[in-house]
Amino acid sequence: MRLNLSVPAPPEGWNALTDPAVLAASLPGCRSATPGLDGLRLVVDVAVASVRGIWAGTVVPVAADAVRITGSGEPGAVDVVVRADPDRTTLTVEGTVDGPLAAVGSTLLAAAVRRLATDTLARAGR
Amino acid sequence: MTTQWFGERVERREDQRLLTGTGRFLDDAGHDALAVAFVRSPYAHARITGVDVGDTLDVDGLVGIYTWDDLPGRLADPLPLLIPHPDLTQPRTQYALAHGEVNHVGEAIVMVVAVDRYVAEDVADRIVVDYEALPAVVGLDAARRAEHLVHHDVPGNVAAVTTQELGDARAAIRSASHVLELDLAMERSLSSPLEGRGVHARWDADDQRLRIRTSTQTSTGVRAAVANILELPDVAVEVITPDVGGGFGTKVLHPYPEEVLVPWAARLLGHEVKWVEDRYEHFVSATHERGQQHHVRVGFDDDGVILGLEVEFWHDTGAYSPYGIVLPIITATQLPGPYRHRHYRVTFTSLYTNTVTCTPYRGAGRPQGCFVMERTVDRIAAELGLDRTEVRARNLIGPDEFPYDLQMTFQDGRPLIYDSGDYPAALERIKELVGWDGFAAERDLATREGRHLGIGLACYVEGTGVGPYEGGHVHVETNGRVMVATGLTSQGQGHETVLAQIVADELGVDMADVYVTTGDTRRFPYAVGTYASRAAVMSGNAVALAARAVRAKAVRVAADALEAAPDDIEIAGGVASVRGTPSRGIPLSQVAVLSNPLRYSFSKEAQAATQFAAPADPDVAPVPDDEEPGLEARDYFSPVRSTFASGIHAAVVEVDRDTGTVDVLRYAVVHDCGRLINPMIVEGQIHGGVAQGVAGALLERLVYDDDGNLNNATFMDFLMPYVSEVPPMAIAHLETPSPLNPLGIKGAGEAGVIPGSACLAGAIEDAVGVRIERMPISPPELWAQLQEHSLKENAPNGVVSLQRRST
C-alpha cells in the first residue's frame, strides 16, 4: 500500500529524531533505538487497529533532511522516506507498507502514521 | 398402488424448521466472523470532500476501515449494469463504495470491519465525513422539472425513453365516439423481508477458494459477479443461499455493494467476515419500487368496447439503473391485461432521482399497469352507466383466441404472446365468489344502517416463467436417497416441497426419499435465479426432465439385471420390477449400485456391482460408450417465451366517511396458474400476495421529504399490515394448462399482489363516490378528498376556495 502524508513538525522536532536516546523516549511503543553499522536500529511494539506485534527496522539518513525507514515484523513490512521541508516545519512520509498493516485500509493507516509522527515529534521537540 | 404427489396438498417440508425456530438464516452463520458496519450518506446528493478516521484509532477491536480509495482493480469500477437495453441510453450504476459523490441517503461510503458489530458501529460513529451538499432531486415531479440533475451528465434526468405500439392508437382514439383522459399515480414501497440482506464470506487459504453465503435470489449471479470483480476463477467462488426470510424481489439485484465488499475483505484479512443488514439499512439501501405517474387517453364506443388506448408514464428509477428498464417495460407490456386491444400505444420515460434505486418488488411494474388499466375500465363503465363486469366481459379476450399475440416485446426480449387462459370463465367465477349480483341489495341494507359499502374488481394477466433457462440434477444414491439440485434459490416459497413432489412422481419413488437443494453453486453451477414467478415453471420442468432421464436409465439397468425387456420394466414405490410379476423387482438403491461398475465394494449390497459378481458380455465395456456411471442425470428447461397466468380479484369494503378508514370486509380471488402442483402452497402464495396487495393499497408507502430524507424508515412509521388488516379471502382455482412446458404449469408467486390497489381503489370509489386516482390512499387522504367532494357538491358554483376548505 502506498503511503503519502505530511504532518507539521514543532521546532527542534526533526533534530531530536537523529538522537537515539531521544527517539527511544519519544516514539510510542519503542522498545529500543540503538546505533548500528547501517544506521539506527529500531525495535517497536506496533499497534494499529487489531494489528499488533513487534516490528524491527532501521533508520538510515539518505539526505540532509531525509531518512529512510525500512523493516518488517509481525505487523508487516515498511519502507518509507521521511523528509523535512527546508525550514523543517513539515515532515512528509512517503513509501509503501505491506502485510497486515496494509490491510487495515489506507485512511486508517494514514491516520495512525500521522498520529505516531505527530506524537513522536511533539515529545522529541520538548 | 401408485401414489400421485403432483396436485396434492402436501404439507410444506420447509415449515418444520421455519416454524420451529430451526431455520438456518444468514445471521446464523459465522458466529466467529468479523463484523461489518457501514458509514452511509445522510445526504441525498453531495460531494464527499474528506473522510477523517482519526477518532477511531483507540477503539479496541477495530480491524480495518475502507473507502473507495482502498478498492483494487475492478472493485473500484461502477458495479455491473445487469440488464442493458438499447433504449437505456444513460445507464448509471453505483460504486461499491461512494467515489466522490453520493446520490441517495443511505449510499455506502466507508466500510468498517471490527471484532463484532457493536465495535464496528462504534467506529462508524466516530468517522467524520465532510460533505458539500448538492441540490437533491426528490420525486417524479422534481425529476421531470429537471431544474437540478441527479447525474450532471444526464440531461433532464432521463435514463431511457421507450415507445411500443400496436396498431394506430392515436387514430383509433380520434375516431372514437367517447374519449377519456386520466392521470393515475402510484407511490414507492419496498420489500421488507423478515431477514434483510446479508453476506458471510470465508476465504480458504489452503484451497484458495472463497465461500460466500448471501441472502440473494440468484447465487449464480452473485458468483459470476464476484469472480469477475475480484478476478478469481469461477471455480474458486462458491455461493450458497441459506434460509433468507423472504426476498420479494429486492434480493434479485446483485451484486449489492456488500456482496463484493465482504468477500473482498474476507480474502484481504484472511478471516471470515459477515455483514447483516439492519432494518434502517434495508429502508435506505435495499432497493425500492412502484413510484410511477401515468397519463391515459382511451377511446371507446357506446358499448364500452375499447377502440384505442394511449398511455404515457414516468418511472422513478432512483439514483441508479442497474436493473435496466425492466420495470417500466413490464408495466408497459402487462398493462393491456386480459383485454382485446387493437390499438395500443405506450411511451415511458425512466427518470433518475436522489432516492434509493428501484428494482423489482413482488409484482414488479404489474401493480401499476393493472391499476392504470382497471381504473380506466372502471371509468369507461361509469361514463356509460354500465356495470363494471359488463364492460370487462365485452373486452375480454375469448378462450378460443389463444395463442393471443399482442405484437409487443416482453421484458425478456421475446414476443408477448398469451399462451392460454379462460378469462370469461374467471369473470363468471369471481362474480359468484364475491357475490357481485347480490351486492346492490347488500349495499342498500347497509346504507339504511348508515354504512357505506362498495365493491370493486380487477383483472390481470401476468407473464411468468421468464427464461432463459434453469437446470436440474437428480441423483439416486446407493442408499436409495434421491438427491435433487437446482440452481435457483428459495426465499421460503416451498421449492423443496414442490420439486420433491414432481421428482417423486416422475421417478416413481416415495416423496420422503427425495431431498432437494436449491441455490448452492456447489451442487448446481448453472442457473439464472428466482424472480418473475418462475421457479416452479423453470426448475419444476428442469427437474422433471432430469428425473425422466434417470428413470430411463434405471429402466435400462433394471432390465439388464432382471433379464427382461426395458418396455416391461415399471418403477413404483422405489422398486423397479417386471410388469405383472411384482415379486421380480429390485429397489432403486440396488439399481443405483448396479449402475456404477465397481472394483472395490463398500457394502454387502455393493458387492453385486463388483467384477466377479455376475457373468458379463465380454465384448461390451462395463460402461458402454453412450452411458455414464451412476444413476443420475442433469437436464435443462428453456422455454421459447413466457407463460401467462391470469386472475381476477374482487373486494367489498366499508368506508367510514367520518375518519376515512377503509375496512376490507371480504376479498375474493380467482386464480389460474395452469396445473397446480400443490394447491395449498399456491393458496399460501396468494394469501401472502393479497396481504401485500392490501398493504400496498392502504398502508405501505415510503415518505421522502424534499431534501431526500426517508421520513418513515422504521416499522413504527412504515405501516405493514398485521393479520388484523388482512381480509378473509375466498380463493377459486382455474387450471388452464400452459402449452409451453411439459408440466403445463404457470407461475404463482407474485400474482396475489398485482390487483390489490386496482381492486380496492374501485371498491372505495364505489363506496363513497370520489375518484381514486392515486395509491396507496391513507385515511387522512381519503377523508380530505371526501371533505373536498362534499364542499364542492354544496358550493353554489362548484368552486371551493382554500379558505373554505380549511374551515
Put the structure in a nutshell.
With 126 residues, chain A is of the alpha+beta class.
What descriptive keywords fit this protein?
heterodimer; A: 126 residues; alpha+beta; Alpha-D-Glucose-1,6-Bisphosphate, Chain A, domain 4; seven-stranded antiparallel sheet; 3 helices; 7 strands; B: 807 residues; Aldehyde Oxidoreductase, domain 3; Aldehyde Oxidoreductase, domain 4; 3 domains; seven-stranded mixed sheet; 31 strands; disordered C terminus
CATH superfamily placement of chain A = START domain
Unreliable segments of 5+ consecutive residues of chain B:
800-807
What oligomeric state is this? heterodimer
The first-to-last residue Cα distance of chain B is 77 Å
- Annotated CATH architecture of chain A: 2-Layer Sandwich
Indicate the low-confidence ranges of chain A by residue numbers.
none
Q: What is the overall pLDDT average of chain A?
A: 91
Tell me about the biggest sheet of chain A? Answer: 7 strands, antiparallel
Structural class of chain A: alpha+beta
- The total strand number of chain B stands at 31
What does the overall shape of chain A look like? globular
Helix content of chain B: 25-40%
Strand order of the largest sheet of chain B: 3-5-1-13-10-11-12
Largest sheet of chain B, described in full?
Answer: 7 strands, mixed
